[in-house]
Amino acid sequence: MELFPLYNSLRIAAISAVIVFFLGIAAAYYIAKTPRVIKGILDVVFTLPLVLPPTVVGYLLLLVLGPKRAVGLYFLDTFDIRLTMQWWSAIFAVTVVVFPLMYRTARGAFERFDENLADAGRTLGLSNTYIFWRIRLPYCKQGIIAGVVLSFARALGEYGATSMIAGYTPGKTATISTAVYQLWRTGNDELALKWVLINIAISAVVLLCVNLLERPQRRRG
Amino acid sequence: MLYVDIEKRLDRYTLKAKFTCDKASLALFGASGAGKSMTLKCIAGIATPDRGVIQLNGTTLFDSEKHIDLPPQKRHVGYLFQDYALFPNMTVQGNIEAGMHRLPKRERRQKAQELIAQFHLDGLEKRRPETLSGGEKQRAALARIIASSPEVLLLDEPFASLDTLLKLELIPSVRAIIEHFGRETILVSHDIDEVRQLCETVVPIADGVTKESENTENYYRILKNRYQNLK
Fold it and tell me: How far is A215 from chain B (nearest CA, A)?
């Protein structure tokens, strides 16, 4: 059994989870500081990929990154790099689809933060950077870790946008989810079932991790 | 010397606080929601007044006309929060050292050790705030503030979250800390007994407006005459 789809899915999910970790936290942190109207608009934009069909996200991404479109053409002309149909093209798709999960969990965690702690830090002369990394993030640690793991789990399962932007090339862009579809479509039910079981096993383990992380919600004194 | 003359529009009233505190402890005394805490927040730079001036020992912390508004980090103000606001992810020692993170590590350690002894926190250095009693939290928070070498102490209802017995026990130790500190201290309180034990001067505040400062005992007599049933 060719294990490339497993390896490819894991690296795409891992890289996307790292990207989304920083983007989601930054978005959640800065949105709290924006004026109300802008906040409302941004929140809708940031959450939209969660409710849009992944095929719509894929279509929109192709509008920008496709080889004949603005950004895609630029990269093709200047760097001779094609942004679609590479294994890493899926990272664009997965990052966009998964971003709302990280953003919303991080925002929820930040909203529970006790702002008095930040104010106390300021009066003690601590810089805003120190307060963010040493007080705010540790305080919201559980929510943020849960968000990353959840994002990773969702990233593993992304199909719609990935298949549109990275396609299915065995040994090159195939992921577990695209492999399952192709194997089923070509009548290779046996192998498809194997991948289905692998996928269920990985996702179950990841969700178990999320639950273990969320359980010990210690009381904050 | 701390000089405050500020105005800030709030939901229910406009805060108008004006007073001077000179090398002693002064109490802002008034009912809950009278604007006491907001006044402290303006002094600390956590909240911004609409108008006015705040000066501390010759430094202008805030001046609306000159567009001066120093960030809290540069005001050298020690603020004791009602719930003490100890950092839950740090130990007692970590909390105390956080206020001196610019000092070299060895110096910081040593100063923290001194403060731990001075504030009777021995044996609690490695504990997290959530495992401390109310009184211990208060001492840890005060030690952390003193560690940051403030020029003025702002105590926001320091006994509000403690029960009466513990409060009676802790007032003398807080008085000792204020005396040892020896500089301007502002206490915010709605409890006249507390004020009598900690401050010689009182500035009454009602619906956001401060009155002339008074000697605490004189003010207490006036209150007592006004409300005969006050014990």
Answer: 18
